[in-house]
Amino acid sequence: MTIRETLEATEEKELSPFASLSRCTKGRERPIEDDRVRTDYMRDRDRILHSKSFRRLKDKTQVFLSPQGDHYRTRLVHTLEVSQLSRTVAKALHLNEDLVEAIALGHDLGHTPFGHAGERALHALSPYGFHHYEQSVRVVERLENNGKGLNLTWEVRDGIFRHQMELMPATLEGRIVRLCDKIAYIHHDMDDAERAGIIDESMIPDHLRRILGGNHKERLNTLIMDMIFSSNGKPDILQSPEIRDAMMEIRALMFRTVYTDSIAKAEEVKVTRMLEQMYHYYLEHPQDLTDEFRMLLEEGEPKEKVICDYISGMTDQYCIHCYNRLFVPKSWDVF
Prior knowledge:
Elements: H1 3-14, H2 40-49, H3 52-56, H4 75-92, H5 97-106, H6 115-125, H7 132-143, H8 154-161, H9 172-195, H10 206-212, H11 216-231, H12 241-259, H13 268-284, H14 291-298, H15 303-312, H16 316-327
Helix pairs in contact: 2-5, 4-5, 4-9, 5-8, 5-9, 6-13, 8-9, 9-11, 9-12, 13-15, 13-16, 14-15
């Protein structure tokens, strides 16, 4: 018996009857030979972790554009926080921790530079629209590995695609990531907003502080513990009504004070203008795309979609570099 087979047998023996077992995966688009050591979900986690798009997350905006400080979250830090919260919940509920980790690490691979401001800009520009959760699946199915994709299992791709609140993943592991994503960004975006001086604890209504806790640590603990105990032994991932309602109130507060109406968002109009100019430039000059994206055009991919692929894959700083190279005159020195 191989190590992989031993791990699969351990899953079957020790995990919840509601867990997704590695040996029961619906499989990949292209069959591959079994690994002697790793289960299918472990292999998916590793493929995502070693991808170029995962590495680029370290230089993509979470909420604050180009923050002047070492402690503000980037998209990569958000991803790691979602992964850790999700693994904690999965372990407590005896669900598949490897599947949870793979989904969590891959859920935001399709995010644009400059966070949701970049996403909104590309959505308005492209006739195909643009949503980061759809793009994350496109990254793992089409764009990574020189156009071959990462060839992930169906369960991981389903969890990545359906991590939005409007959708529902097929597996409980995907549902854990879906909810932990929301808990994570509410928690750490509030922390970053307080660090930036945009909000403070006094702005949180007293009844929410009584229900969820009086500081970030207490609120995060309340949300995760409630999720675990509400879901334990059940075929779904749940929250108690009181905690869910309180979390949504906190989320609404963040939208009013940080996400849509704060000094932190004042620069986003520049992001929109910058991406608009870059999009239209590449629409007129597709030959200036890099080799891997020109290859997609040669294979018949729509030009508008490929341009969104190219721009959305950029980090914040590389996007600014490209914009300057295309539109900002160089200085002229004569000696």
